[in-house]
């Protein structure tokens, strides 16, 4: 038996034991997630099509891992303006394994329910990890990072949230630091290296 589920604004055809990558869901590896928006369930002539969803149907899955897709770069250049901008983005994704397709209002097994009860603890740990910044902001007044070409108000705010508040910090970034920022934030390594060069010039003044 298969089902068509809706999650993250997309539709997926799934069957038991299928492994698929979807838009990010909250939860750690081993947690159980439930999909209640079922567009179709069954097989052949006995398939039920929802209007828009099938009443009493549910698909249960187990979180395999949390990850991110390959980085996508957006490059914008203005002719004869000596202006270019690069923005990077890595979409957060969740890999899940379909464990059960339920119909007629059936509920997940006790084993599944127990895993679901453990989810709040996992979410708390995830929230803790999110609040930890990459760097420790130095004491004193922060610099106006928008002085660096390529850093706008939004990017400056994102850098501040990660503990980067001064030109000196950016100027002293190591290649390993740049890799860390590249992996955790929507900026490319080339972009951060350019900011580092500009920050060195500002600090030297």
Structure description:
The chain is α+β, with helices and mostly antiparallel strands and 205 residues long. The chain has two domains: 2-119, no CATH class; 145-204, Orthogonal Bundle (DNA polymerase, domain 1), CATH 1.10.150. 30% of the residues lie in helices and 31% in strands. It has six helices and ten strands; from the N terminus they run E-E-E-E-E-E-E-E-E-E-H-H-H-H-H-H. It has helices at 110-117, 119-131, 153-161, 167-171, 175-184, 189-204, and strands at residues 2-7, 10-15, 19-23, 32-35, 38-42, 48-49, 58-68, 72-78, 83-89, 92-102. The strands form three sheets. Strands 2-1-5-6 form a four-stranded antiparallel sheet, with no helix packed on it. Strands 3-10-7-4 form a four-stranded antiparallel sheet. Strand 1 and strand 2 (10-15) form a beta hairpin. Mean pLDDT is 85; it is low at 113-119 and 126-130.
Mean pLDDT over the residues:
85
First-residue to last-residue Cα separation:
69 Å
> What is the molecular shape?
elongated
Q: Which residue ranges are poorly predicted, with pLDDT under 50 across at least 5 consecutive positions? A: 113-119, 126-130
Radius of gyration: 23 Å
Work out the helicity level: 25-40%
How many strands, which pairing sense, and closed or not: the largest β-sheet? 4 strands, antiparallel
Order of helices and strands: EEEEEEEEEEHHHHHH
Secondary structural class: alpha+beta
As a percent range, the share of strand residues is 25-35%
What is the count of helical runs? 6
């Amino acid at each position: 038996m298969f089902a068509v589920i809706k999650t993250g604004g997309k539709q997926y055809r799934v069957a038991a034991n299928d492994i698929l990558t979807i838009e990010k869901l909250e939860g750690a590896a081993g947690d159980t997630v439930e999909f209640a928006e079922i567009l179709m369930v069954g097989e052949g002539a006995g398939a039920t099509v929802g209007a828009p969803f099938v009443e009493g149907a549910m698909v249960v899955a187990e979180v395999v891992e949390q990850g991110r897709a390959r980085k996508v770069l957006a490059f914008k250049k203005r002719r004869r303006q000596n202006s270019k901008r690069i923005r990077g983005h890595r979409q957060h994704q969740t890999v899940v394994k379909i464990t059960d397709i339920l119909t007629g209002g059936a509920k997940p097994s006790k084993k599944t329910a127990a895993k679901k009860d453990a989810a709040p603890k996992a979410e708390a740990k995830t929230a803790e990890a999110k609040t930890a910044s990459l760097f420790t902001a130095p004491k004193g007044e922060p610099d106006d990072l928008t002085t660096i070409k390529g850093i706008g108000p939004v990017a400056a705010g994102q850098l501040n949230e990660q503990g980067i508040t001064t030109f000196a910090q950016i100027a002293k970034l190591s290649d390993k630091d740049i890799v860390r920022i590249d992996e955790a934030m929507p900026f490319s390594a080339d972009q951060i290296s350019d900011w580092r060069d500009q920050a060195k010039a500002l600090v030297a003044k």
